[in-house]
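for the writeup, i need someone to sanity check this before i put it in the appendix. the sequnce is what the collaborator sent (i think, or maybe the updated version? ugh). structure was predicted straight from it, no edits. if anything looks off just tell me and ill rerun, i have time this weekend
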Amino acid sequence: TLVFMATKDEATLLLTTEEADLPSERLFAECLRLLLHRYGIAFTESRLRNCEWVSPTGLSPVIHHEGQLMTDFACICDHYQRSRGLQNPLPGASTGGGGQGPDGEAQGQSKVLMATVQSYISAFSSSISCLIDHLTWIPDSTYSNITKPRYASGMVRPLAWLLPGQARSRVRARLDTVGWLKNQQASEEASWLFSSLGLLAKEQSTGHLLNSAQPTGLDCLACGLVTFALACEHEIGCEILYELVLAQPDLLAYQKALVPRLMPR
């Protein structure tokens, strides 16, 4: 029986065991940590063998909070941005206002920003997922030497040699459908992803993407991606992420300035 130890006001970030986690989970876990800190939500982390088996969608990481099991970064962002407020100040920050609620015009602008932020999150998170899945599952050497052993870790035979192949087939079919299967296509899409985020970082003047007054889920996604990419210099199969992020100095500067505000030590 799976028991969650978090209190009502505390979230639990559910991850697979360290010997079995894959780059996609580590990347989105970093994004979710930033998101939870951004909204001042206390959380603990728990590692489970085959965490995806308790996930509503079969994906990990998973957040258990307020009686709900939530997965998929875009959906989790949408939940918290609607329930906690898109433009709520960071925890501990001064609101600096008179405490009055937003007028009709401000509410309308907030709804427009909410829709814009969510559309960017959906597009970028989908591209990030495809990119990481391509790097992790498609190259034969990476799959055979790293992905397959890690994915099968903790499984008993015959599952240990049946399920990885089935998972790879599903990934290949999905990537082929969205145009990420071939190496050239994936390379072009990866360059587009990082250059687009770099352009958004260059154009921001508030310290937040889309020039929002407060950090949004899009900022958590971008900063989580950069943080993960910087740690991939010696990650077999994912070294390209390190090279791509170094080519975007504006994105690096933006991430360096914002992360300490999201996760104060």
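The first strand starts at residue 11 and ends at 16. The mean pLDDT is 89.
thx in advance!!
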